Amino acid sequence: MSTTTTEHKNSSFVLHSPNIVTYEDRPVPELESPHDVIIRVGWTGICGSDIHYYLHGRIGSFVLEKPMVLGHESAGTVHTVGDKVTSLKPGDRVAMEPGIPCRRCVRCKGGNYNLCPEMAFASTPPYDGTLAKFYSLPEDLCYKLPENVSMEEGALIEPAAVAVHITRQANVQPGNSVVVFGAGPVGLLCAGVARGFGAGTVVIVDIVQNRVDFAAKWISGGAKTFMPERGSTPQENAAALLKSSGLEEFGGADIVIDASGAEPSINAAIHVVRRGGTYVQGGMGKDEITFPVLAMCTKEITCKGSFRYGSGDYELAVKLVAEGKLNVKELITGKVAFGDAEKAFEEVRSGKGIKVLIEGVKD
User: Among residues 104, 177, 258, 313, which one has the fewest Cβ atoms lying within 10 Å of its Cβ?
Assistant: First the structure.
């Protein structure tokens, strides 16, 4: 249920509690630092985490305790710049990296700012998100969009950067075989980035027919697909996948990425990795699962987690899109006006489309 006001200085889409949202007039952000910029948000995508907060009001230890503006996959136009901003000017179109690290802790100083314990991340309690007319960020977290990249594509730089980080965690090399479990936006983007990094055989796994059909056509150069049999064991599905994809003769895939967070997928994935291969967990699911530890150990699998994005990931995502190596435009299956944001959330909640975008506030 939502309510609407008629005049706004900084109209915002606000979550109050599960399934209760409003459009509110909020203060226009101010420049808190001479290195900050104020952005007029142009387009915002809906992420799975946004839906989770919308439905449940929490993700793990992050609990909604006060009204919070939703959204974090955004691009916009620079509106105002601080006195010490040198790389941006009003009118520049930018992709917005929505997490501000402390820059002082051990993790930040070690180059892993995505692991900063004090990270202020948009649309993660208690921090407001980007589904507003204006949003403020430090200059260095705004990335200019090349002329051939649209604002709508700019909103998909955020999930593309997530995929870049996952794929870099996997250390994909030219010729590697890569299997990706989950053909949602991040899984598709992981497969696309892997192909951009030079992967040879790319296999997409999902339980939904139209998703695997789309993946087969969307991945540059084509991709193989596999749909697990319901009722089969993870070992049985892994064996069937390897046989159908031609990876059986190599003893498995060089790299397996799980972008689903689903326990059956994670279990099957470990059995798909070859001996000495690499497994990266990109999808989030239950806090605790049953995991095939014996297979991981006896095959000496390198297992890694992946969380958000770090140094260089946004820049590389922009570059891949600008060079045509990552076609994010075809992932956009719906666009709505700001006033229809709740409708868009309901559509994504019901599983419609791949990526739905919400347009920024109109004057």
Answer: 104
